[in-house]
């Protein structure tokens, strides 16, 4: 992880936030969070809620904080008219996959994440277009 506190403050708390965060608390202490933003689906013709990160402190897992965060996100998506609430999970994270499937989520194993970063991103960006 290379994101800094300054990055998060700039991008989440400025005049045009790129993301939002829900906090789960126990006795006023943060125990978990859901980091999300809205994307847009050309297939659905609507904006959709995308969960980037869901985290609950290990000592608080299994007590309902993750479920409460997911329910709150689902309500946000419905209230915003989103036809879709999506996120990614690592294929080895079986406890999370089981949790998500128990919620009724479908793991789309036929879709692959594609990422362009680092030197490959810089190389492609620096190439001249012939449009």
CATH superfamily: Gcn5-related N-acetyltransferase (GNAT)
CATH architecture: 3-Layer(aba) Sandwich
Distance between the termini: 36 Å
How many structural domains are formed by the residues?
A: 1
Count up the helices: 4
Question: Which helices and strands appear, and what pairs or packs with what?
Answer:
Layout: H1 5-12, E1 20-26, E2 29-41, E3 46-56, H2 65-79, E4 85-87, H3 94-102, H4 118-126
Parallel strand pairs: 3-4
Antiparallel strand pairs: 1-2, 2-3
Explain the overall architecture.
- The protein has 131 residues and is α+β, with helices and mostly antiparallel strands.
- The chain has a single domain (5-126), classed as 3-Layer(aba) Sandwich (Aminopeptidase), CATH 3.40.630.
- It has helices at 5-12, 65-79, 94-102, 118-126; strands at 20-26, 29-41, 46-56, 85-87.
- A 4-stranded mixed β-sheet has the order 1-2-3-4, with helices on one face.
- It is globular, with a radius of gyration of 17 Å.
- The model has no long low-confidence stretch (mean pLDDT 95).
């Amino acid at each position: 992880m290379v994101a800094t506190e300054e990055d998060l403050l700039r991008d989440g708390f400025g005049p045009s936030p790129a993301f939002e965060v829900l906090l789960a608390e126990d006795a006023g202490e943060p125990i978990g969070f859901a980091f999300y933003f809205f994307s847009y689906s050309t297939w659905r013709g609507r904006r959709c809620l995308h969960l980037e990160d869901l985290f609950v402190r290990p000592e608080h897992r299994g007590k309902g904080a993750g479920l409460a965060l997911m329910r709150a996100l689902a309500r946000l998506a419905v209230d915003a008219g989103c036809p879709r609430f999506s996120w990614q999970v690592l294929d080895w994270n079986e406890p999370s996959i089981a949790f998500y499937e128990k919620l009724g989520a479908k793991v789309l194993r036929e879709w692959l994440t594609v990422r362009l970063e680092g030197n490959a991103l810089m190389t492609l960006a620096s190439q001249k277009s012939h449009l």
